[in-house]
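queue> pop job 88
queue> type: inverse folding (structure -> sequence)
queue> payload:
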């Protein structure tokens, strides 16, 4: 599970955050309590690309994740369209 930082903490401790990421520990930065970005080491991204990724989507699909669902769909009905 990645280390989680709120945006203010990440700004104040950016060097530490980068160092941890370079040591292979995924870092999660939240904004307003919601996951905003993951920070991973460049070599991890390069490895993902070398492993057969053909696009940014392929890289993102293989990026480290937390156990929580980051992308929840809104289950409310779509708006009605007058035809």
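queue> result:
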């Amino acid at each position: 599970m990645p280390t989680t930082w709120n945006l203010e903490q990440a700004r104040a401790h950016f060097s530490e955050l980068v160092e941890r990421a370079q040591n292979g520990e995924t870092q999660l930065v939240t904004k307003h309590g919601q996951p905003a970005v993951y920070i991973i080491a460049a070599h991890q991204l390069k490895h993902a690309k070398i492993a057969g990724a053909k696009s940014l989507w392929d890289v993102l699909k293989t990026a480290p994740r937390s156990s929580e669902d980051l992308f929840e769909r809104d289950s409310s009905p779509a708006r009605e369209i007058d035809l």
